[in-house]
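target protein:
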Amino acid sequence: MPAKRLRLGSHVFTLVVVLLLVPAGVEAQNGGVTIKSTVSEVVALSVLPNSTQSHVETSLVSTGSTVRITLSGAGADAPVILVPLLVRSNSSFKISATVESNTAEVTQLSVVDARATGTLVSPNSVSELNVPRQFDVRGLDESTSSVQNLLDPSRLVLVASGPRVSRGGTLTSPNNALQITLLIRVKPQPGRGWLVHLTFVGTAGSLIQ
């Protein structure tokens, strides 16, 4: 009895794990084999590199979904600082802010602009960005954007929210972030050096969009 030859077709599986690309509950089946993958919601915040301004001492610490900005100075002038905050997410998101200082007040925190950094940004991330009215000065002229909106130092304040940002890429890809430009106006107390800590926290919403 001639031996039976069993010929197995060549099946090559390549599993590419890209944190911001894979949706929740992915399943791949071949015969009796099922591969399941579950991805958690991710919101990552950072600040555009080399964007600090020389007229104010600035220190930046970015850890995952949190950015902590420390501003300091010695003069009595009220400085205005622009911060290009980068948001990457595989879900809807919210960004909240809190301020800490005993020597100055943050008299204004405003969103002056929002734009996509590249082709891996969801097309509706800019148009559907929601900013509370008191913080939204997009498209307004310089004189209008000087209105004060004093932050409450005792609580987190919602600054912006929106749909999923990143269609693919990683947490460091240059073309998958939403850049939200923040205007920060500080009023130091007279006759002393000043120090302000601003913390921005990103939280995730639903993965399914």
About this structure: Confidence is low (pLDDT under 50) at residues 3-28. Residues 100 and 197 are 5 Å apart (CA to CA). The chain has one domain: 43-204. The radius of gyration is 23 Å.
